[in-house]
Amino acid sequence: MAYNIDEIRSFFPVLKKEVYNKPLIYFDSAASSQKPFQVLKKEEELHNDHYGNIHRGAHFMADKATQEFEDVREQVRAFINAASRREIIFTKGTTESINLVASSFCERFVKAGDEIIVSEMEHHANIVPWQLAAGRKGAKIVKLPFNDLGVLEIEKLPSLINEKTKLIAVAHVSNVLGTINPVKEIIELAHQSKVAVLVDGAQASPHISIDVQELDADFYVFSAHKMYGPNGVGILYGKEKWLEEMPPYQGGGEMISEVSFEGTTFNELPYKFEAGTPHISGVIAFGAALGLMNKIGLENMAAWEHSLLVYATQKLKEIEGMKIYGEAPRKSGVISFNIEGIHSYDLGMLLDKMGIALRTGHLCADTVMAHYGIQGCVRISFGIYNTKDEIDVFMAALNKVKMMF
Ligand code: PMP
Fold first, then answer.
1. pLDDT tens readout for residues 46-88
2. Which ipTM was obtained for this model?
């Protein structure tokens, strides 16, 4: 499918909306993307036709829902080219996926005195779970820094890795700086010392084609709600060799084989890590989002978003007092900035009144804010439906706000 922006926009009913009597310009897809009708329809279809609790095999409805749920597992497997569907675990989001690995991996493989390397540009979701798990074990968190351009200083990585290092946690794409990190290189380095790597793909999976086998990632995590799918659905990819060894994260229905008061045996992968009733309708509807992304094509989406990034960056740089955070040579469609003399919160609030939805504040990345010595910033982020015309409207609004100060 050639990139037909009008057709793509027509998939998203919400884009016709007005806020404060202004056409909505949605520049906050990095926080959560909007949902196309295909996803909304799929969820409705399930509820109107064949909803039932899955994996119970009790009746027609349950069987049909189970089949669709498991079909999406296969779709996810193919989307990231995992070797087996046993390696695809449904969670409620990237945050839960990371907590699962931090808790379970550390319980099994980390002991007092061990070290976990975490990059300085991580979302809080890829820092705090490691701190909690390391704290329980008496292990230490070691920082992998980035430079002022927003590029990880991976030349420092060999000196940070030692025999105590057990895992490296790093984002594929930074949610603040937009930097596309060289995760393949990091994984190669880590594996030379038998260190595992968890890649936080929350900001990469909506934009970049992912091949977990090619990357050789040990764990790769992401959220459906940033990929035009429903919220409340996350994915944990883990290599079977790790997942087999790791203890369950939560106990409950579905994750067991047999239960008695003498002891419990656990279900096989991936169910060992899927306790309780999952977000059935969310997972099934996510299949429609993946279908749409495949149809449009990841390469086409990336090229479109890159052209928006280049255009907006160039326009923003013309503004006096503009400071952009993150100028890495490989960057995704995220631009964080401040304008001298204007508080980011004021800027965001005034732009919102002009119909522009964007994000302000610390962006769940206090360590990035600390790096630049700021409290917060403004972030615009692009999805497949954004246009250069919207950037022009945004720029005019920004200039108007600037005149007010
Ligand atoms: N990591 C990154 C890089 C993110 O951008 C986000 C979402 N802002 C998360 C993790 C957390 O994702 P979720 O809230 O879907 O669990």
1. 999 999 999 977 899 999 999 999 999 999 999 999 999 999 9
2. 0.99
Contact 36, 228 (CB under 8 A): yes
- Whether 63 and 188 share a structural domain: yes
Gap from CA of 393 to ligand 1 centroid (Å): 28
> What span, in angstroms and rounded, lies between the C-alpha atoms of 200 and 195?
16
Are 204 and 245 within one domain? yes
Catalytic residue among 364, 378, 384, 391: 364
Count of domains observed in the chain: 2
pLDDT digits (tens, 9 = 90+) for 94-128: 999 999 999 999 999 999 999 999 999 999 999 99
Q: pTM for this one? A: 0.98
* Separation of CA 349 and ligand 1 centre (Å): 23
User: Do 200 and 220 fall into the same domain?
Assistant: yes
CATH number of the domain at 71, please.
3.40.640.10
pLDDT digits (tens, 9 = 90+) for 312-370: 999 999 999 999 999 999 999 999 999 999 999 999 999 999 999 999 999 999 999 99
Assess whether the C-beta atom of 203 lies below 6 angstroms from ligand 1.
yes
Ligand 1 contact, 99 CB (< 6 A): no
With a 6 A CB cut-off, is 94 part of the ligand 1 pocket? Answer: yes
Determine the 3-state secondary structure of 359 from DSSP: strand
Opening angle at CA 86, ends 84 and 91, nearest 5: 120
CATH of the domain at 368: 3.90.1150.10
CA nearest neighbour of 117 among 222, 205, 187, 212? 187
Residue-number span of the structural domain to which 196 is assigned? 41-294
Helices first, then strands: H and E counts in the chain = 14, 17
